[in-house]
Amino acid sequence: MLLDTQVTTKFKILKPTNEVFEAIVDPVKIGNFWFSSSSERWEQGKSVTLRYDEYEAEGVINVLEAEESKKIVFSWGAEHGEETVVTITLQELDNIRTIIEVTESGLREDDPEIVNKMMGQKEGCVYMLSSLKGYLEYAVKNLSAPLIH
């Protein structure tokens, strides 16, 4: 049996596509809902260092494509030998609503942990998009911060 080795998640966000796009590519804004920090603006051809302070982790993405208010494509995971490609597309429903779709492809079909990895990636995407929605629609910031015990 062949598995579809991509994971897709969609959300509707009640903001125009340009605001959704900027929240992702702007190194200051992204820290409010996804990564703790981004070394620079996400632009085609750039390698951007992302940091997750709560996990004491850092990674590099390679921005393959960035089309203003429409699409962002990047690869990541190469440093761990598990490079995948993430495509973020923005569909404007009208000037105040956007459908954002995130698809991650390139997961290895023969990996014995593929189901767990796909579930983990889907869970991460749902969390990120929920946080993005909270940030853009309700101005809730620092959603990526760890819980205080």
List keywords for this structure.
alpha+beta, Alpha-D-Glucose-1,6-Bisphosphate, Chain A, domain 4, seven-stranded antiparallel sheet, globular, disordered C terminus
Beta percentage is: 35-45%
Mean pLDDT rating = 91
Shape: globular
At CATH level 2, the architecture is: 2-Layer Sandwich
What is the N-to-C succession of helices and strands?
EHEEEEEEH
Given as residue ranges, the uncertain stretches (5+ residues, pLDDT < 50) are: 145-149
What is the helical fraction, as a range of percent? Answer: 10-25%
What is the number of independent domains?
Answer: 1
According to CATH, the homologous superfamily is START domain
Descriptive report:
This protein has 149 residues and is an alpha+beta fold. The chain contains 2 helices and 7 strands; from the N terminus they run βαββββββα. The protein has a single domain, classed as Alpha-D-Glucose-1,6-Bisphosphate, Chain A, domain 4 (2-Layer Sandwich). 23% of the residues lie in helices and 36% in strands. The protein has a 7-stranded antiparallel beta sheet, with helices on one face. A hairpin with a 4-residue loop joins β3 and β4. The C terminus is likely disordered.
